[in-house]
Design a protein that fits this description.
The protein is an alpha+beta fold. About 30% of the residues lie in helices and about 15% in strands. A two-stranded antiparallel ribbon has the order 1-2. The chain has a two-stranded antiparallel sheet with strand order 3-4. The chain binds zinc ion.
Length: about 90
């Protein structure tokens, strides 16, 4: 019987989550993110955000294999980020 391809797949594993959460902390302090959130909009509800109110949302959640990369994070207000949790769409 064929071995299931995803048996050894790292995504969603504790190691993956720990690594990407750490990467997100670093990305949050990056010049790229800090300038992005100076004058941003929540990607889900459109509310205006600034450096104090913006949160970093993973489009594909880390818990589902998403990475902490520029292509996978968007500014989001806290209520939307909390409501979204580990879904990839709101
Ligand atoms: Zn929002």
């Amino acid at each position: 019987m064929a071995r299931r391809e995803d048996d050894n797949f790292d995504s969603g594993s504790d190691a993956h989550v720990a690594r990407e959460r750490a990467a997100a902390r670093e990305l949050r302090t990056s010049r790229w993110w800090q300038s992005l959130i100076q004058n941003a909009m929540c990607q889900y509800c459109g509310v205006a955000l600034d450096a104090k109110t913006a949160t970093m949302d993973h489009v594909l959640p880390v818990s589902r294999g998403g990475r902490s990369t520029k292509g996978n994070v968007v500014p989001s207000c806290k209520p939307c980020n909390t409501a979204k949790r580990d879904q990839s769409i709101l």
